[in-house]
Automatic annotation (TrEMBL):
Residues 30-120 form the Acyl-CoA thioesterase-like N-terminal HotDog domain. It comes from Cucurbitaria berberidis CBS 394.84. This is Thioesterase/thiol ester dehydrase-isomerase. InterPro entries: ACOT8-like_C, Acyl-CoA_hotdog, Acyl_CoA_thio, HotDog_dom_sf, TesB_ACOT8-like_N. One of its GO terms (biological process) is acyl-CoA metabolic process. Keywords: Hydrolase. GO terms for molecular function: fatty acyl-CoA hydrolase activity. It comes from the Eukaryota. Belongs to the C/M/P thioester hydrolase family.
Length: 330
């Protein structure tokens, strides 16, 4: 199976081969992002599950909810396989169970994700229309620097080194290949390079961790031919960085923990006419940390102020065991 070696469009990255009986396989292998281990970005498994579920329902059904669990990391040297099972199909609603897996070296199946996707046909009218606003009042995207300019400013001011910036660019290269992003100066990620410059103070240090937020503007700069492509593109974006948000907010990063990765997810869409080629605002926060886990949220609004999508996740956040403590446990 071909590993994606050159710059592929979003649609090409998530092209599926139909194996029949609601089974699919990705044509290109998933890629790594944001995790120092050589495993695929979790958005690949989620996005593939969303797309396969969308392909399994009749025309006119819109994804509004997908709940599930990340059961293990996906590898970057092999394709993802998808199995979709019909749970419910009525004139109004459809529910699909989706399983993402990869073939192990011994030929056995290894499940990476299990989820339930719910769809609904377009309602004729809405009794009420309302949505919550962001926690902060953010500047318009036109008044915000590009991601590149914000990072270059940190470099020019001597706050980060070229080596660190190069490492960040390598770790997060997938996003700028797909999205235009505008950095909001008051946000934590803009001030500490997504947490990689953990030694830098940020303007929310005086706030309790559960009150801190980070936000940015984004849009997909590639053409997306179908409604399913817009939906899955947003799923790919909204999954990003939730797991390590508590680290980045707390002057910590991957090297400071034994494990950090998403365990489960609740993805919800609030509108049917998603168009990710238009500018959207994303705001992220983390509200609970306990029992070796964290709970984080990501909200997305369009320029009209409509809440478009939401994702919450619990993630493993396991502290390192010091050598002396480890020896005592042995």
């Amino acid at each position: 199976m071909a590993q994606s070696t050159g710059p592929l469009s979003f649609t090409e990255q998530f092209a599926l081969r139909n194996l029949g009986n609601n089974k699919f396989e990705t044509i290109n292998n998933p890629q790594r992002m944001g995790n120092p281990s050589n495993i695929a970005y979790g958005g690949y498994a989620l996005d593939t599950a969303c797309k396969a579920a969308c392909l399994s329902v009749p025309e006119g059904y819109h994804l509004y909810s997908m709940l599930g669990n990340y059961l293990g990391p996906a590898y970057t040297d092999r394709p993802l396989r998808v199995s979709v099972r019909e749970i419910r199909q009525t004139r109004t609603f459809a529910t699909r169970q989706v399983e993402i897996s990869q073939e192990r070296d011994d030929g056995k199946k290894r499940t990476c994700l299990m989820g339930l996707a719910d769809f609904q046909v377009q309602e004729q009218a809405a009794l009420l229309k309302y949505s919550r606003a962001p926690n902060e009042s953010y500047p318009h995207w036109k008044d915000c620097p590009t991601q590149h300019d914000a990072e270059q400013k940190l470099l020019d001011e001597g706050k980060i080194s070229q080596v660190l910036l190069d490492a960040h660019t390598a770790n997060f290269s997938l996003m700028p290949a797909i999205f235009d992003q505008r950095s909001i100066p008051s946000s934590i990620f803009a001030q500490n390079l997504y947490g990689m410059a953990k030694y830098l103070p940020h303007s929310q240090d005086s706030l309790p961790l559960a009150k801190r937020t980070t936000a940015d503007w984004f849009r997909c700069h590639q053409p997306l031919p179908t409604t399913a492509d817009h939906t899955t593109n947003l799923a790919f974006l909204i999954d990003g960085a939730i797991a390590f948000t508590p680290l980045s907010f707390s002057h910590l990063f991957f090297e400071d923990v034994a494990a950090v990765s998403s365990l489960d997810f609740a993805l919800r869409f609030f509108i049917n006419d998603v168009d990710v080629t238009q500018w959207h605002l994303r705001e992220m926060s983390t509200t609970v940390g306990a029992e070796g886990r964290s709970f984080g949220e990501s909200w997305v609004w369009d320029e009209r102020g409509r809440a478009v999508a939401y994702m919450s996740q619990q993630s493993i956040l396991r502290p390192k065991v010091e050598r002396k403590e480890r020896a005592e446990k042995l």
